[in-house]
């Protein structure tokens, strides 16, 4: 495995949280500019152009390929990350993980309630209610990137909290997509997907060391098997990105002796190795392409912005991200700390957590996906939802980033006086 810290390594550059967030931001801005320029018709023509090979399940528009196909790679990495957290990370220790886990649940429930409340109060039609899950998501790449940019001196425990919260948030989003946005299931294809997943599990467990030693093997053997699983899941009627998560969960996290995991001296296994290899692909290609073809919406100038602002769908999303997320996350964390054995890490303050709760309101990637699943590409509600997602996420990034930037200055002074914030009781 290449050394990720080696200078001049393009892979190491693409693995950075800040790089992923920066490329995502560039793709988002480019999509908005082009979609609202004289090239707008060309942009939408490319997005809606069909690309296929004449096989059922392999004929989609470019935009659908980005959302249903490429994004499966992002969710594969999410599955690897979730598995690692459960086996050898923060989610392994229930008491330690309890606070960010419950905070994540609060950060899902409150935005959904606010969205529904605004749409019900506005007398919105029933189709508008389908978007209740849009403001519940936290974009891992974007949120962690903001924290990395503004928080060079922040305690490590803050990143751990935000990452754990975002991972659990993604898990909840995956469950919502699987159960809420799946209309019917075809048992035969689901059974085929299950068989392929079992084969994937056997290969990655029995020959884990071989796949780690032979870098080409994952591309030649595991990738085609993953594509076949993706196709079966899609044909089964389940959103195809779920295949990525399930495949990620099949990969072993730690090296093992012939019978037991060496808990006393754990060695990382195939999951971290695959995450290391695929992360540049996700950060450098998958997420920017998805963002480029999903974020593009013809705003229509001032009139278009007014139209979106008058739609309770957009208002509900903005309020959910800017109010629901902070209230749900901070409120749930405070209640857990106050009334349960779970405790906030003493390395950061409640004000730090308040700032992080705003950063968690950046709902870009998964929110855009849920919006398309809720309303369909090109529908008025979907376009207004995109405006709400972009506006709400931008404000959440600015507010949360500003709060944490101020805290970062404070922690820099603490470090300058020779005190380590990671062991400093504020």
TrEMBL record:
Keywords: Antiport, Cell membrane, Ion transport, Membrane, Sodium, Sodium transport, Transmembrane, Transmembrane helix, Transport. InterPro entries: Na/H_antiporter_dom_sf (IPR023171), NhaA (IPR004670). Its main location: membrane. It is found in: Cell inner membrane; Cell membrane. It catalyses: Na(+)(in) + 2 H(+)(out) = Na(+)(out) + 2 H(+)(in). It is a multi-pass membrane protein. The chain crosses the membrane at residues 21-45, 65-86, 98-120, 132-154, 161-181, 187-204, 216-234, 240-261, 281-302, 314-336, 348-375, 387-406. PANTHER family: NA(+)_H(+) ANTIPORTER NHAA, SODIUM ION/PROTON ANTIPORTER NHAA-RELATED. Belongs to the NhaA Na(+)/H(+) (TC 2.A.33) antiporter family. Na(+)/H(+) antiporter that extrudes sodium in exchange for external protons. This is Na(+)/H(+) antiporter NhaA. The gene is nhaA.
């Amino acid at each position: 495995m290449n050394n990720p810290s080696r200078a001049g390594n393009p892979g190491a550059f693409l693995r950075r949280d800040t790089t992923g967030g920066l490329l995502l931001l560039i793709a988002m801005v480019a999509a908005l500019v082009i979609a609202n320029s004289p090239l707008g018709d060309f942009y939408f023509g490319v997005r809606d152009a069909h690309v296929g090979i004449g096989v059922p399940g392999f004929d989609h528009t470019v935009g659908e390929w980005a959302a249903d196909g490429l994004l499966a790679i992002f969710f594969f990495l999410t599955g690897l990350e979730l598995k690692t957290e459960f086996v050898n990370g923060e989610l392994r220790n229930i008491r330690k993980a309890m606070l960010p886990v419950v905070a994540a649940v609060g950060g899902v429930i409150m935005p959904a309630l606010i969205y529904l409340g605004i749409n019900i109060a506005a007398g919105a039609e029933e189709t508008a209610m389908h978007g209740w899950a849009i403001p519940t998501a936290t974009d891992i790449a974007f949120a962690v990137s903001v924290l990395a940019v503004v928080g060079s001196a922040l305690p490590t425990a803050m990143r751990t909290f935000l990452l754990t919260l975002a991972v659990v948030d993604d898990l909840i989003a995956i469950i919502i997509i699987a159960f809420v946005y799946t209309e019917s299931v075809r048992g035969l294809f689901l059974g085929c997907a299950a068989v392929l997943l079992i084969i994937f599990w056997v290969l990655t467990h029995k020959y884990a060391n071989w796949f780690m030693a032979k870098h080409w093997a994952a591309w030649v053997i595991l990738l085609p098997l993953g594509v076949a699983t993706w196709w079966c899941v899609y044909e089964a009627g389940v959103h195809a990105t779920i295949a990525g998560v399930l495949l990620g969960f099949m990969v072993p996290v730690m090296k093992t002796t012939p019978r037991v995991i060496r808990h006393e001296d754990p060695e990382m296994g195939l999951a971290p190795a695959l995450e290391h290899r695929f992360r540049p692909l996700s950060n450098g290609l998958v997420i920017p392409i998805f963002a480029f073809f999903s974020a593009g919406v013809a705003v229509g100038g001032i009139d278009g912005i007014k139209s979106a602002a008058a739609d309770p769908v957009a208002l509900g999303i903005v309020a959910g991200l800017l109010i629901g997320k902070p209230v749900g996350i901070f409120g749930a964390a405070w209640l857990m700390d106050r009334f349960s054995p779970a405790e906030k890490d003493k390395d950061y303050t409640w004000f730090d957590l308040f700032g992080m709760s705003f950063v968690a309101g950046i709902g870009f990637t998964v929110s855009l996906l849920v919006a398309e699943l809720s309303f369909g590409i090109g529908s008025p509600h979907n376009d207004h939802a995109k405006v709400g997602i972009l506006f709400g996420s931008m404000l959440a990034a600015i507010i949360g980033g500003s709060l944490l930037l101020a805290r970062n200055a404070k922690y820099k002074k603490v470090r300058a006086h020779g005190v380590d914030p990671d062991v400093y009781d504020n």
